[in-house]
Amino acid sequence: MKNTYQPGVSAGWRGLCLSLLLVLVSWQAALAQTPVAKYGALQVKGNQILGQAGQAASLAGNSLFWSNAGWGGERYYSANVVGWLKNSWNASIVRVAMGVDEAGGYLENNAREKAKVKTVVDACIAAGLYVIIDWHSHQAEKHQAEAIAFFKEMATTYGTKPNLIYEIYNEPLQVSWSGVVKPYAQAVTNAIRAIDPDNLIVVGTPTWSQDVDVAAADPVAGINIAYTLHFYAASHKAALRAKASAALSKGVALFVTEYGTCDASGAGSVDATSTQEWMDFMKQNKLSHCNWAINDKAEAASALVTGTSPSAAWSDNFLTTSGRLVKGYVQGWGGTAATPAPTPTPTPTPTPATGTKIEAESYHAMSGVQTETTADTGGGLDVGWLDAGDWMAYTVTVPTAGTYTIQCRVASPNASGQISLEQNSGTTKLGTLAVPNTGGWQNWTTISRTVTLAAGQQDIAIGVPAGGYNINWWSFAPVSASAAAKTTSTLAATAVYPNPAQQQLRLPLAQPGATARITVLNARGRQVLSQEVPAGTTTEAAVAVADLEPGVYLLRVVAGGQTTTTRFVKE
User: Fold this and answer.
1) Which of 167, 171, 359, 361 is catalytic?
2) pLDDT in tens, 75-122
3) C-alpha to C-alpha distance for 569 and 550, rounded to whole angstroms
4) pLDDT (tens digit, 9 = 90+) per residue, 216-261?
């Protein structure tokens, strides 16, 4: 047998294999690198937050809810949650929102609240994540001595760790920057710097941390200081981005330590379009951000569905609409692209007020479909296993001829599905709807389009030109009824006065010809006051607040089909 051994070739292959092995090891090491190992101690240069080596550091992660005892969010102050955010979300930062002057907060029991903070901070350090210690107050200047003592202790304990970020004032109210917020911030900053010379300090700005342009014109003295920008996508849009751009143009760095995908009250619906616009803005300007909030409170801002255990091995089934949307951004941030497949803004599930709702499984004839138990609101069944060529037929009665809005409640893990609305055995095409990627087979959203219908009893069929989705129900309603849907807006904080209030709060009624229902909710979302103003009796309502405990409250006014909200402070 001929000897084919070639030492040179063998050595070459060994060298190549060794090179590939080294590349693989280096690649695995890069994947395993934690955010803090990647960026090191953060620093501010001009209007940018940079890593220790001078590279741009744009972090993405989550804010915990108020830490206050009895509020519900404190259950998630654990190492288990930190590990989940790191491993499942790819979060690079966690914000600890330590409640201060509200019930159950730091001023009531500082040892208890500090223990919660340290649990999360220690877990973040162990995981290699950045962590924000937030003095979560709206009136921090009233407790400056307590803030200084707290941050001196935190700086003494953690000041040598590059993970640490100090947020010394969550959201100042509509108070003077130069006369109130800046003097407080300077005093607390000086106290921290006497112990920790260089870890990042983030300073809140007036009007719930939106007046960043005002702060930029008169900055706090010191190094490695950034300014807090907060937004809620359904309430704050281009005007606030203009203020942020003005601040950046003046050379200060911004840090979005809190944002929501919904209304500023935390309620309403997720505004996916506005959230995407903000993500584009933050990506363009290399801003870091934390989403509000890791909590299971029954409101749009929460990332977790109600009842989620803090010790569970969470899957995406535990995430709300906001949670799923935000997770996509956080997972894919990594300092590069910021555009996951967008989750459409969900619409409410109740039957249209003057329309007709049909459960998808109530067809009188079909081809190729099956039913299953649904996780959508209201439970019951949905129709799935839809493939191209399948169909379902329904008999309906249309009250009058005209233009109607047809809504379809759908779920899909991809964006290739289509619904064809048909009549006359498919020979009449009423219209087609594209089914979006909702993030999963049981992540539901509502899509719609207008069609023209004749009056009387008739068949309408749902055809499937392209499958890969589930459908729970569909409905039709006259366009006039659809157009009359309720709207939600934010009442300017300057419209209610005095704010802060002690005895009485006054507010203008945008629709004095309609009966107004006024409710006040505390920071935990519980209704503490309600009253009704009859139509036509006044153009300005008075709300007695003397009996309320001091703190921040949400004021909600419902009148003429419109809901307006704002926040106020009771002293």
Assistant:
1) 171
2) 999 999 999 999 989 999 999 999 999 999 999 999 999 999 999 999
3) 7
4) 999 999 999 999 999 999 999 999 999 999 999 999 999 999 999 9
549 classed as catalytic: no
Q: Which residues have a Cβ under 8 Å from the Cβ of 29 and sit 6 or more positions away? A: none
For the record, the structure tokens of 131 come out as: 């962590």
Indicate if 424 and 522 belong to the same structural domain: no
The number of residues in the chain equals 571
Q: Nearest to residue 302, comparing CAs of 42, 73, 570? A: 73
Q: Give the pLDDT band of residue 275 (cuts 50, 70, 90).
A: very high
Is-contact 215 247, C-beta < 8 A?
Answer: yes
- CB distance 164 to 151 below 8 Å: no
- 565 neighbors 267 (Cβ within 8 angstroms): yes
* 304: DSSP letter: B
The reply to whether 171 belongs to the active site is yes
Whether residue 7 lies inside any domain: the answer is no
**Which phi-psi region, left, alpha or beta, contains residue 328 (left: φ > 0; alpha: ψ -120 to 50)?**
alpha
Q: How far apart are CA 393 and CA 365, in angstroms?
A: 5
Answer yes or no: is 556 within a domain: yes
Counting beta carbons within 10 angstroms of the beta carbon of residue 396, is it exposed (0 to 12), middle (13 to 18) or buried (19 or more)? Answer: middle
Tell me which of 520 and 461 has the higher pLDDT.
Answer: 461
Residue 267's domain is classified under what CATH number?
Answer: 3.20.20.80
Total domains, the chain: 3
CATH number at residue 540: 2.60.40.3080
Which amino acid is residue 134, in one-letter code?
Answer: D
What is the domain extent for residue 508? 487-570
- Looking at 333, 364, 379, the residue that finishes a domain is 333
124 shares its domain with 221: yes
Q: Over the stretch 501-519, which tens digit does the pLDDT of each residue have?
A: 888 888 887 777 788 888 8
- Which residues, in sequence order, are bridge partners of residue 554? 521, 567
Q: Indicate if 373 and 244 belong to the same structural domain.
A: no
- Which residues on adjacent β-strands are paired with residue 370? 384
CB 419 within 8 A of CB 407: no
Taking residues 478-487, report their average pLDDT: 50
Q: Which two tokens stand for residue 186?
A: 């300077």
CA–CA separation, 82 and 410 (whole Å): 33
Confidence of residue 549 (pLDDT cuts 50, 70, 90): confident
Determine which one of 74, 141, 167, 258 is catalytic.
Answer: 258
Question: In the listed set 483, 500, 525, which residue is the last one of a domain according to the structure?
Answer: 483
Domain assignment present for 454: yes
